[in-house]
């Protein structure tokens, strides 16, 4: 039997991981700029956590979770997203006791959703997510959005839009929910089975139904923005005014509702128009969630956050990094058994002094070994024949100048360090 990776998962090979490392490094640097600290919650949680937070009418919970029973019969689920786990960890570890608020956390790692795979959509995918807990202030909402925008800008991504909307506070959402029920009731028989259930439990979810997307009743469905309380509207207006002050460009899309149940007030997405992304053009999304922590048993704590799909960021990066070349400091070329033993020792000594090295283990000809020097883009080749071993010297070739010199064993490190400074 030929084994293949499970559908919706991929192997990231060395030619791919360089791009990922670049992305990860950049994300960590931006997190530092925003004083956001890393948290690493587990990959799986009790299933109930996701039902409660992401919502038991969301597609993620009803259709996409990898849920299994462990040997003691507990229902566990591979995390489909990061907010729920961070919120749980915040409560469990009493991070709410911190003197300085907001508590700003980021995470980076695999998430799991049983979806139909396509470009930019996998079953095991990666998110970089940020959660800011303990403060409700339009300025913080804007900080979160600005951080998301900074990320795509730092990656040099063009044709990217910040799309924002508000779902309002609890009162606004209740009024909107009633309006949605009234609106959809006459069409109930025409909507899909899922929407009929959503109608009862959470009519907002009808608006992001993939099946009934083109039903005529969707076009003129009540919009959250028309049911806002004065306070919720004032909050949203402040957010938009601050974005204007900072000259962050955005578009308000009254139809943006996001697919997770914990949101209130501001929701946003970062969308790319780059055709390279195909149908999966949403690079990231997020919003405010003010009752999640309380629902999970913590003290009333507002929060805001967002997450980017890292696969999509890597796709959007395209071939931007292609020219940046990797290199090796030294490639050791033993020619014969004695040379090999010496190469092993020199290699260990050089590495201990911070030089990246590799050597030939295949007893190949000088010509074949020089080809490897080229392929690995080694700056120096150290050639060690049996004669050199006897004379306690090596030949060092500088591949940039093509000069070759004979160097005594004890001088190798000093010689290379001097050359590397030139
Ligand atoms: P989300 O919109 O479900 O939000 O996911 C965020 C991002 O993850 C998406 O915009 C997309 O780029 C990426 N993504 C989602 N599913 C897949 C998939 N199957 N394959 C590849 N990429 C995918 C959340 O997860 C929220 N927890 C974000 C958040 C944080 N809200 C507040 N804090």
Question: What would the keywords be for this entry?
Answer:
422 residues, alpha+beta, BirA Bifunctional Protein, domain 2, Rossmann fold, five-stranded mixed sheet, 16 strands, 38% helix, elongated, binds histidyl-adenosine monophosphate
Q: How would you summarize what this structure contains?
A:
By secondary structure, the protein is α+β, with helices and mostly antiparallel strands.
Describe what you observe in this structure:
This protein has helices at residues 14-33, 47-55, 59-63, 83-92, 138-154, 170-184, 193-201, 216-219, 230-245, 292-295, 310-317, 337-352, 366-375, 386-391, 412-421, and strands spanning 37-38, 44-46, 66-69, 75-78, 103-112, 124-133, 160-166, 251-252, 264-272, 282-289, 303-309, 328-335, 357-359, 378-385, 393-398, 404-408. By secondary structure, the protein is of the alpha+beta class. It folds into 2 domains: 14-169 and 229-317, BirA Bifunctional Protein, domain 2 (2-Layer Sandwich); 330-421, 3-Layer(aba) Sandwich (Rossmann fold). Helix 12 (337-352) links the parallel strand 12 and strand 13 (357-359). Helix 1 (14-33) packs antiparallel against helix 5 (138-154). The chain starts with 13 loop residues before the first helix and ends with a helix. The mean pLDDT is 95. The structure holds histidyl-adenosine monophosphate. The site of histidyl-adenosine monophosphate has 27 residues, from strand 6, strand 10, strand 11 and helix 11.
Bound molecules: histidyl-adenosine monophosphate
Number of beta-strand segments: 16
The CATH topology of the largest domain corresponds to BirA Bifunctional Protein, domain 2
User: What is the distance, rounded to the nearest whole angstrom, between the alpha carbons of the first and last residues?
Assistant: 55 Å
Binned, the helix content reads: 25-40%
Strand order of the largest sheet: 1-5-6-11-10-9-7-8
The CATH class label of the largest domain is: Alpha Beta
Mean residue pLDDT: 95
Largest sheet: 8 strands, mixed
> Can you tell me the number of structural domains?
2
What sort of overall outline do the alpha carbons produce when their principal axes are compared?
elongated
What's the CATH superfamily of the largest domain, by name? Bira Bifunctional Protein, Domain 2
Which percent range describes the beta-strand content? Answer: 15-25%
Please tell me the CATH architecture of the largest domain by its name: 2-Layer Sandwich
Radius of gyration: 28 Å
Number of helices: 15
Stretches where pLDDT is under 50 for at least 5 consecutive residues are none
Task: Please identify the structural class as seen in this structure.
Answer: alpha+beta
């Amino acid at each position: 039997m030929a084994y293949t990776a499970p559908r919706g998962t991929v192997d990231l090979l060395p030619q791919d991981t360089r791009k990922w490392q670049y992305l990860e490094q950049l994300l960590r640097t931006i997190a530092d700029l925003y004083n956001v600290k890393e948290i690493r919650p587990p990959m799986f949680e009790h299933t109930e956590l996701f039902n409660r937070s992401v919502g038991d009418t969301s597609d993620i919970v009803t259709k996409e979770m990898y849920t299994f029973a462990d040997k003691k019969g507990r229902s566990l689920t591979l995390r489909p997203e990061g907010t729920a786990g961070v919120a749980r960890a915040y409560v469990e570890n009493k991070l709410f006791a911190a003197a300085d608020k907001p508590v700003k956390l980021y995470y980076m790692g695999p998430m799991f959703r049983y979806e139909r795979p396509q470009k930019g959509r996998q079953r095991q995918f990666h998110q970089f997510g940020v959660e800011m807990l303990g403060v409700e202030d339009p300025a913080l909402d804007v900080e979160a959005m600005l951080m998301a925008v900074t990320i795509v800008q730092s990656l040099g991504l063009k044709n990217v839009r910040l799309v924002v909307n508000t779902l309002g506070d609890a009162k606004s959402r209740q009024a909107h929910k009633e309006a949605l029920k009234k609106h959809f009731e006459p069409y109930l028989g025409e909507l899909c089975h899922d929407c009929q259930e959503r109608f009862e439990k959470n009519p907002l979810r009808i608006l992001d139904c993939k099946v009934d997307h083109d039903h005529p009743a969707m076009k003129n469905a009540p919009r959250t923005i028309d049911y806002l309380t004065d306070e919720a509207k004032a909050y949203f207006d402040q957010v938009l005014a601050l974005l204007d002050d900072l000259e962050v460009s955005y578009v308000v899309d009254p139809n943006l509702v996001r697919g997770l149940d914990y949101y209130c007030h501001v929701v946003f997405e970062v969308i790319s128009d780059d055709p390279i992304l195909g149908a999966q053009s949403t690079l990231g999304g997020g919003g405010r969630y003010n009752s999640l922590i309380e629902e999970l048993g913590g003290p009333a704590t507002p929060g805001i956050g967002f997450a980017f799909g890292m696969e999509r960021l890597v796709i959007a990066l395209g071939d931007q990094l292609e020219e940046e070349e990797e290199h090796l400091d030294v490639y050791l070329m033993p020619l014969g058994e004695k040379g090999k033993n010496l190469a092993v020792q020199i290699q260990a000594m050089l590495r201990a002094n911070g030089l990246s090295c590799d050597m030939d283990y295949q007893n190949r000809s000088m010509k074949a070994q020089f080809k490897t020097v080229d392929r690995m883009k080694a700056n120096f080749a150290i050639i060690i024949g049996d004669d050199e071993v006897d004379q306690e010297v090596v030949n060092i070739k500088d591949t940039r100048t093509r000069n070759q010199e004979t160097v005594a064993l004890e001088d190798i490190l000093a010689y290379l360090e001097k050359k590397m400074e030139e």
